[in-house]
């Protein structure tokens, strides 16, 4: 399993290769909601004052209620789930089993710490992405026998019934949550680690201390607290994402693509030659996601409302 730093995004590099300015491009390479949560007006001190404990407490209460976090579990807020992924090896500096293919930052984090990564289920640390990126596979609930089990639920807000959040009350289990994907505000940089205090404490100290003071910005605290309390928006968004994913499947299948996985935030298709599809779409200033470990799979995120006709036109031009 490669830990090469391949991700979605990279519009500047795509524009340099295929032409056009950044604003000309439609980015379908990520799994970010294209219809983001409407950002509420922010008080001036959200920008000018150091974040205070009261704002953090409001955010954590909202997160606890939204995800139905067990009372025994603590919640640590961070500047994005990636910041937490990078610090998981500090909780248990040991070899990790990471079944792949999956989001490669997990393996990169453990290798950067000088730790072995494999798919050997007997390793002291086990990391799963649930649902998995990029194929959307769901992992069954298992008894936590490892020293540390990390369950990355960055895309699970599209299917809350599949969440394993109840396991956050088990020793050795950490649940990771991402705010940017479902709420479509990736630039806000907000993520959460959820688990027992002893689980969130490694040889170097508690995860919260490892992140340092003021880890989450004032605007992120304010916006996150409001959004996590908006249950109506979340319910409507799940319905809209499901409809958009079905629409995307229809467009792709009409050009011979075969759906092989994904979530309602991104779809994974088998297309024969993924590079040919990516190059063709790129000539229409549409960026997609391919993978160094497959020549036939391509991942497409959902376009915004104004992008559907453009995507349809581009797909019609495929041989």
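Q: What amino acid sequence fits the structure above?
A:
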């Amino acid at each position: 399993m490669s830990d090469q730093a391949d991700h979605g995004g990279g519009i500047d590099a795509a524009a340099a290769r295929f032409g056009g300015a950044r604003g000309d491009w439609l980015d379908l390479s990520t799994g970010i909601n294209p219809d983001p949560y409407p950002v509420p007006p922010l008080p001036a001190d959200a920008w000018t004052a150091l974040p205070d404990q009261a704002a953090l407490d409001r955010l954590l209460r909202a997160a606890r209620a939204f995800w139905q976090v067990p009372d025994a579990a603590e919640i640590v807020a961070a500047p994005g789930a990636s910041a937490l992924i990078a610090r998981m090896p500090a909780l248990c500096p040991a070899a990790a089993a990471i079944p792949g293919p999956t989001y490669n930052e997990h393996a990169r984090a453990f290798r950067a710490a000088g730790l072995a990564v494999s798919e050997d289920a007997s390793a002291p640390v086990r990391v799963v992405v649930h649902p998995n990126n990029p194929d959307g596979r769901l992992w069954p609930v298992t008894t936590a026998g490892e020293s540390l089990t990390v369950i990355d639920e960055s895309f699970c807000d599209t299917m809350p019934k599949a969440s394993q959040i109840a396991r956050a009350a088990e020793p050795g289990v950490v649940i990771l949550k991402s705010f940017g994907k479902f709420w479509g505000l990736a630039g806000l940089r907000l993520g959460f680690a959820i688990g027992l205090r002893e689980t969130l404490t490694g040889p170097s100290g508690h995860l919260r201390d490892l992140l340092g003071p003021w880890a989450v910005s004032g605007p992120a605290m304010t916006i996150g607290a409001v959004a996590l309390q908006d249950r109506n928006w979340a319910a409507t968004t799940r319905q809209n994402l499901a409809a958009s994913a079905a629409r995307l499947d229809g467009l792709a299948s009409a050009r011979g693509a075969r759906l092989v996985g994904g979530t309602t935030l991104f779809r994974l298709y088998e297309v024969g030659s993924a590079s040919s599809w990516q190059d063709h779409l790129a000539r229409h200033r549409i960026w997609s996601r391919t993978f160094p470990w497959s020549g036939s799979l391509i991942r497409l995120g959902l376009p915004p409302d104004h992008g559907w006709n453009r995507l349809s036109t581009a797909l019609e031009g495929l041989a």
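Q: And what stands out in the fold?
A: The two ends are 32 Å apart (CA to CA).
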